[in-house]
Amino acid sequence: MGARRRARELALQMLYEYDVSGTDPRVMFERSADLRKAPEGLQDFTRHLVAGTLEHRGELDAIISRQADHWRIARMPIVDRNILRLALFELLHEPETPRPVVIDEALEIAKRFSTPRSSQFINGILDGVLKGRRSEASTP
How far apart, in whole angstroms, are the C-alpha atoms of residue 23 and residue 69? Predict the structure, then answer.
């Protein structure tokens, strides 16, 4: 597993904790033994992903809600909605990461941390968001 995937997994765990308990990200960063043991670049990327995802959480949730017909975000499994938030943050705010890489990473993380059907659900949402963005960009 690559360092960036490890950073995404650590970020997912912290986003999950934030979603469940509202723990301040600085507290999570200080408390995480896995993060402290990681190389500095991985630590920086993890912190960036968590901070950016939380900063844009309202926007990300609105996008997910629009795309997920018949699914309220609060009813989605916590892991799945945080994988979606994390992947969408990267897709929308980290243009240097290739889109296929972001989607593949999200699906692999879903396979590891969620249910067998979650990767299909996550792929459908991310694909729908990207198709919607492409059609918006091509509309004069």
Answer: 30
